[in-house]
Amino acid sequence: MLPNASYPFPPTSVALSEDAGQTWRTVDSPCLGLEGTGIALDSQQRPMVVCQGSAGTGEAPKTMVRATDTSATRWTKLPAPPNAGTGFQVSLAADDTGVMWGPRSPLLITADGGATWTPNAIADGIVRIVEGGSALPGGASLILVWDPSRRHILVLRTTDAGANWTQLSFFVRLQG
């Protein structure tokens, strides 16, 4: 995990910390009328933000942007995630490997800091839904996946960029 942090504050700003959360500064949101739903820092400490519209069907317009440097005053557009899905979250490791997920979207994996994303079959986003994730260096990741056939949340781990997954644990989702 990177020592610095950043958070989207829809719709107008992004908060950044360069000292592990001791102090914060805000910059204008790069989402230009869209909502920032997920944010992560790449290996060079530049924020990357997933921006999307508010259509409830999951077909909302989406874009991804990355700051050109750590000041986050200028942003460059990255290839957009797929139109399917809502509320995308993203996690990048210090080596620029990462995962992105959202309801109605397959799990997406990157090995290049978010320049490209590849769908992973472990979760389709419709039946098996990723509910949380964390990217670790070397292509390792942990994800929480809802498995409706077992009515459990599964804790899964990969050490090879999603080629194979191991179930570490599970827990029952409480109603309410």
Provide keyphrases for this structure.
176 residues, mainly beta, Neuraminidase, 15 strands, 47% strand, globular
Detailed description of the structure:
This protein is mainly beta. It has one domain (5-172): Neuraminidase, CATH 2.120.10. It is built from no helices and 15 strands. The protein has strands at 5-9, 13-17, 25-28, 35-41, 47-52, 62-67, 75-78, 89-92, 98-101, 107-110, 118-120, 129-136, 140-147, 152-158, 166-172. It has a four-stranded antiparallel β-sheet with strand order 4-5-6-7, with no helix packed on it. The protein is globular. The protein starts with a strand and ends with a strand.
Q: What is the level-2 CATH architecture name?
A: 6 Propeller
CATH topology: Neuraminidase
Oligomer: single chain
Count all strands and give the number. 15
Tally of individual helices: 0
Distance between the termini: 32 Å
Sheet with the most strands? 4 strands, antiparallel
- CATH class membership: Mainly Beta
CATH superfamily: TolB, C-terminal domain
Question: How would you spell out the order of helices and strands?
Answer: EEEEEEEEEEEEEEE
Number of domains: 1
* Order of neighbouring strands in the sheet with most strands: 4-5-6-7
Beta strand %: over 45%
Low-confidence segments:
none
User: What average pLDDT do the residues reach?
Assistant: 82
The coarse silhouette is: globular
| Radius of gyration computed on alpha carbons | 16 Å
Strand-pairing-aware structural class: mainly beta
Helical proportion, percent range: under 10%
Short description:
With about 180 residues, the protein is an all-beta fold. It has strands spanning about 5-10, 15, 25-30, 35-40, 45-50, 60-65, 75-80, 90, 100, 105-110, 120, 130-135, 140-145, 150-160, 165-170.
